[in-house]
Design a protein that fits this description.
Layout: E1 21-25, E2 30-34, E3 43-47, E4 52-57, E5 60-64, E6 67-70, H1 75-83, E7 96-101, E8 106-111, E9 118-123, E10 128-129, E11 134-135, E12 149-153, E13 156-162, E14 170-176, E15 179-183, E16 195-202, E17 215-223, E18 234-242, E19 260-263, E20 267-268, E21 273-274, E22 277-284, E23 293-299, E24 307-314, H2 315-324, E25 328-333, E26 337-342, H3 358-362, H4 373-381, E27 398-401, E28 405-414, E29 420-428, E30 432-439, E31 442-450, E32 460-464, E33 469-473, E34 478-482, H5 492-497, E35 503-506, E36 511-514, E37 525-526
Antiparallel strand pairs: 1-2, 2-34, 3-4, 4-5, 5-6, 7-8, 8-9, 9-10, 9-11, 12-13, 13-14, 14-15, 16-17, 17-18, 18-19, 20-21, 22-23, 23-24, 24-27, 25-26, 28-29, 29-30, 30-31, 32-33, 33-34, 35-36, 35-37
The protein binds 2-acetamido-2-deoxy-beta-D-glucopyranose (4 copies).
One 2-acetamido-2-deoxy-beta-D-glucopyranose is lined by residues 39-40, 144-145, 475-476.
Membrane topology: Single-pass type I membrane protein
Domain Sema: 14-483
Subcellular location: Membrane
Length: 548
């Protein structure tokens, strides 16, 4: 069973594992990694610096391609968990959900640990846990099947999770070794049954003349408070907090003073169709925060229509909503129906929910602890903004029928025409990967591959530009795949008509090659992203029609 992995062209693959069951698919260079009796490979961390992929699974952490460590649940917590009615085989185990880099020597890792979440440091030198577990409440979920997100920013862990055993108390928190936990208010107007999907930092602080702060953005779907609806209406959201937030002095003590949220719109207005469940988000960061584009995958709450969509958002538009948007407030309309309406009164100053900036510093407000109670009370009662975040082009970039997208990553590629193209990789709940290219404002699916053999859901998807690989985590294993399969196109026509920005026809070797592998001789390479195969040697390319 044990096979060595066939080395990929270029920088090679990390899944050259000697201890696991590695099955190399020679044709497509897809490698699988899984260990017997280990499941739920849902947490992935890439360290380009260490040249390693870390995988968090059920009761195990792996460093591919080197080592693994076990982290099981001891007798007592296991017993407590089963006494509370949870299953010993399923729930009362340790699902690793947090893997974050602390420094060159250590990772911070957390697991559900039989519904008593725990965190510990993993020493990379000998790949061992410190063995001094810390309370993981507010950092990691109790329930392995509950939605969850986390990001480490400058040594502080930001999480979106639940704070209690029942999973009924949602929380967006920041844990730092030197301060007490900063968190959201426990109130349905702040968070209402959220499903967290993603969080990341946008470094605005370094680039702004107004002295504004870096911000951490969270993406989730929650139950609407603002609309009257028969049953639960789901709403996709973007929320953000400021990195420098320290909480309030009296009001909002140890709570965010900068928590604001807005609706993410992904809809087809002309058809009155709304994609209202966000499943994953990828932030394509530019050199400047203004060049950043946020990509999200959505489906509709009414799943029977079988449509998935990709919407893209301009970071400038997001920032605009948070810095200038109108607030909403709870209004009690007749018969105790509560919904939310636009707040039309006078807004206190400084602007509620704003980060500390130079203007505030001039007013001697150098930290959130100095914010006036009026501002704090206001943001406590009005965390929701009325203005929604609209997608680029006012509609989805891509709509696909009969799939449920679960994951998304995006890479910006410079093609031979010297233009930059956003290449979108979306994973489905059936283990399929779609590759799409944004070309002249429209998106074309250029490739579809069955990444996971047993049609399971892709639970996590990462992209490494360095090794030009994708890594997909699922319940039964991890898969590594190249970002392009140019070699499968055997003729110049097929190669060019694929309209894949990674691929070009090499006249010298008469093969379809990856332009990033090819020696720098663009003269001998043929690529045409509008699918014009006329430049192919025989010249008959254009008559061969093929739709993408
Ligand atoms: C873990 O994997 C098992 C086996 O594939 C699956 O049945 C289960 O739903 C997974 N659990 C979670 C919490 O993802
Ligand atoms: C985002 O919007 C700003 C302002 O409207 C514009 O200058 C910028 O080009 C846009 N960026 C993208 C990636 O669309
Ligand atoms: C800020 O504090 C300084 C020193 O305490 C004081 O002189 C100044 O008047 C204060 N400015 C404002 C706007 O309150
Ligand atoms: C998508 O997911 C929904 C809800 O889980 C399911 O009912 C539906 O069959 C799925 N559709 C496809 C095409 O997989």
């Amino acid at each position: 069973m044990l096979k060595r992995f066939v080395k990929l062209r270029g920088t090679g693959a990390w899944l050259r594992i000697i201890f696991g069951f590695v099955i190399a698919n020679n044709l497509f260079h897809i490698t699988n990694f899984s260990e017997p009796d280990i499941f739920n490979y849902s947490t992935l961390l890439l360290s380009e610096k260490k040249d390693a992929l870390y995988v968090g699974a059920r009761e195990a952490i792996f460093e591919l391609s080197k080592k693994n460590v076990q982290w099981t649940v001891a007798q007592h917590p296991m017993m407590m968990c089963t006494l509370k009615g949870k299953s010993k085989e399923r729930d009362c185990l340790n699902y690793i959900r947090v893997l974050q880099v602390v420094d060159d020597e250590r990772l911070y890792v957390c697991g559900t640990h039989a519904f008593q979440p725990q965190c510990d440091y993993l020493n990379l030198a000998d790949f061992s846990l410190d063995g001094r577990p810390e309370d993981g409440r507010g950092k990691c979920s109790f329930d392995p099947s509950q939605s969850f997100t986390t990001v480490m920013v400058d040594g502080e862990l930001y999480s979106g999770t639940a704070y209690n055993f029942l999973g009924s108390e949602p929380i967006i928190s920041r844990y730092s070794p030197s301060q007490s936990l900063l968190r959201t208010e426990y109130s349905t107007s702040w968070l209402n049954e959220p499903s967290f999907v993603f969080a990341d930092v946008i470094r605005e602080g370094t680039n702004r003349v107004d002295g504004d702060d870096d911000k951490i953005y969270y993406f989730f779907t929650e139950v609407s408070v603002e609309y009257e609806f028969f049953g639960k209406l789901l709403i996709p959201r973007v929320a953000r907090v400021c990195k420098g937030d320290l909480g309030g002095q009296r009001t909002l003590q140890k709570k965010w003073t900068s928590f604001l949220k807005a609706k993410l719109v992904c809809s087809m207005p002309e058809l009155n169709f709304v994609f209202n469940v966000v499943h994953d988000v990828f932030i394509l960061k530019g050199a400047d925060w203004r060049d950043t584009v946020i990509y999200g995958v959505f489906t509709s709450q009414w799943g029977n229509v079988g449509l998935s969509a990709v919407c893209a958002y301009n970071m400038t538009a997001v920032e605009e909503v948070f810095s200038k948007g109108k607030y909403m407030q709870k209004a009690t309309v007749e018969q105790s129906h509560t919904k939310w309406v636009r707040y039309n009164g006078i807004t206190p100053s400084p602007r509620p929910g704003a980060c500390i900036n130079n203007l505030m510093r001039q007013q001697n407000i150098s930290s959130s602890l100095h914010l006036p109670d009026k501002t704090l009370q206001f943001v406590k009662d009005h965390p929701l903004l009325e203005d929604p975040v609209l997608p680029i082009g006012n509609g989805p970039r891509l709509i696909t029928k009969d799939v449920n997208y679960t994951q998304i990553v995006v890479e910006r590629v410079r093609a031979l025409d010297q233009n930059i193209y956003d290449v979108i990789f979306t994973g489905t709940d059936k283990g399929v990967l779609h590759k799409s290219v944004v070309f002249e404002g429209e998106v074309h699916i250029v490739e579809e591959i069955q990444l996971l053999k047993n049609s399971e859901s892709i639970k996590n998807l990462l992209l490494s530009s360095e090794t030009r690989s994708l890594y997909a985590g699922s319940d039964s294993g991890v898969v590594q795949s190249p970002t392009a399969f140019c070699g499968r196109y055997l003729s110049c026509d097929d190669c060019v008509l694929a309209r894949d920005p990674y691929c070009a026809w090499d006249l010298h070797t008469a093969a379809c090659v990856n332009i990033f592998d090819a020696p720098s001789k663009p003269n001998g390479l043929i690529q045409s992203l509008n699918g014009d195969a006329d430049k192919c040697p025989s010249g008959k390319g254009s008559t061969c029609s093929r739709t993408t």
